[in-house]
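Priority: medium. Attachment 1 of 2:
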């Protein structure tokens, strides 16, 4: 696939089929002038006067017998998606009319865009990195709200930000090392080996964390996520262990024992899913960074859940119905569970729920059956990263770790700062491949060939 950046491209930007509104996108040096052939002399004058991003109303005439109302969104300078002069023509969504209008636009200086060419231009202009470009494709291809949220998070920099932070730390270490090498004969120490080692260790930990997350996605994120939630000390961890028939979670009467979340694969009646135990929900406290981080993690797990198991202790049901109503308003698929039901004989919570008692082993099979029923009914699958990005990142992050480990080993064995600097350069190159600082035509072709025309 060959991309040119110095010409003007156009394409229909809306999906195939009729709709209330259709969009034709134009980008390149002649983007505004290309519209002149479709409008009257008066409208041409309006277009000529545009000096900043604006919307103007036009009357398109792609042929002698067709006249279409149009809102033209115009970016005359580099502050557009592609950082080129750009125009979006918003008009009637009738496909034959859009095709007729596009055909009238195409000519000597305007050509039909290749698949993904608008986003490619945005990437090459520095508007997006590669991970964000793949997130655009993830948005286009998403099926359901969960996948859409995943792609939007990645587009907002959810993957790129930590990688760029890691690159910045490595660049700083490399700059100080190379400065020391340049002045080696002057016996000037710009940075100690211990400081470099600490920076490399910190970056290694961050990359290992990200690689572990991606490996978990490859093995588990195709499974539905069933998340245990509730107030502190409602018996979530005990229920987690009971459902798994193991002791993976720490169980304690002390409130707030669970600070992170635990995850384990589970199978019942032929249905496989990921069971997640989270920290109890409580108010955020100033200065309590660990507790607040646990709360943020719990909220994140709730957003990624295909099914929430909300636990209410049998002796504290005062606000249960209000909490369930809130979950319902969030369109959250939920099973209400009354835990420690043995503490309140003949407990009647007043809402649909499953009473359970880990001590007496009651309600567990009923809960497992209900989970399977809900998952089979919904047929949901969770995703936490755009799939193409995860596949592309895995090798680069693995090679990054190898280079970082070699650099640390070189420091420990006093092999020489030149070797350390060389390994850091390798790590930077691999991280650069993920966000697009370092790329090849083959990488770009693999990514953007999956796009449709007009995106």
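Attachment 2 of 2:
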């Amino acid at each position: 696939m060959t991309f040119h950046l110095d010409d003007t491209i156009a394409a229909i930007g809306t999906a195939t089929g009729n709709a209330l509104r259709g969009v034709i996108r134009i980008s390149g040096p002649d983007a505004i002038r290309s519209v002149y052939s479709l409008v009257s002399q008066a409208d041409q004058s309006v277009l000529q006067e545009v000096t900043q991003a604006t919307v103007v109303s036009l009357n398109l005439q792609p042929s002698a017998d067709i006249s279409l109302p149009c809102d033209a969104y115009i970016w005359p300078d580099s502050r557009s998606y592609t950082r080129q002069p750009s125009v979006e023509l918003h008009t009637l969504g009738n496909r034959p009319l859009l095709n007729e209008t596009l055909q009238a636009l195409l000519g000597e200086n305007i050509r039909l865009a290749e698949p993904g060419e608008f986003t490619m231009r945005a990437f090459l202009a520095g508007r997006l990195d590669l991970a964000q470009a793949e997130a655009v494709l993830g948005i286009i291809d998403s099926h359901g709200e969960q996948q859409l949220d995943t792609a939007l998070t990645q587009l907002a920099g959810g993957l790129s930000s930590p990688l760029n932070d890691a690159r910045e730390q490595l660049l700083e270490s490399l700059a100080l090392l190379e400065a020391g090498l340049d002045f080696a004969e002057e016996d000037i120490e710009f940075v100690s080996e211990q400081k470099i080692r600490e920076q490399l260790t910190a970056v290694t930990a961050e990359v290992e964390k990200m690689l572990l997350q991606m490996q978990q996605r490859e093995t588990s994120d195709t499974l539905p996520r069933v998340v245990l939630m509730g107030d502190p000390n409602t018996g979530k961890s005990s229920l987690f262990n009971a459902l798994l028939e193991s002791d993976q979670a720490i169980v304690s009467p002390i409130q707030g024992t669970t600070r992170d979340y635990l995850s384990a694969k589970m199978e019942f009646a032929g249905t496989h899913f990921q069971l997640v135990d989270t920290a109890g929900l409580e108010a955020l406290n100033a200065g309590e960074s660990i507790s607040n981080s646990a709360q943020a993690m719990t909220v994140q797990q709730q957003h990624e859940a295909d099914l929430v198991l909300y636990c209410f202790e049998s002796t504290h049901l005062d606000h249960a119905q209000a909490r369930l109503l809130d979950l319902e308003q969030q369109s959250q698929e939920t099973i209400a569970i009354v835990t420690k039901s043995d503490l309140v004989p003949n407990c009647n919570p007043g809402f649909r729920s499953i009473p359970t008692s880990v001590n007496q082993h009651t309600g567990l099979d009923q809960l497992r059956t209900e989970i399977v029923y809900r998952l089979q009914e919904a047929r949901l699958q969770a995703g936490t990263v755009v799939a193409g990005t995860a596949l592309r990142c895995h090798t680069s992050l693995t090679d990054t770790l190898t280079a970082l480990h070699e650099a640390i080993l070189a420091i420990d064995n006093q092999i020489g700062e030149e070797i350390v600097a060389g390994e850091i350069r390798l790590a930077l190159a691999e991280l650069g491949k993920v966000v697009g600082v370092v790329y090849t035509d083959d990488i770009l072709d693999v990514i953007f060939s999956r796009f449709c025309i007009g995106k």
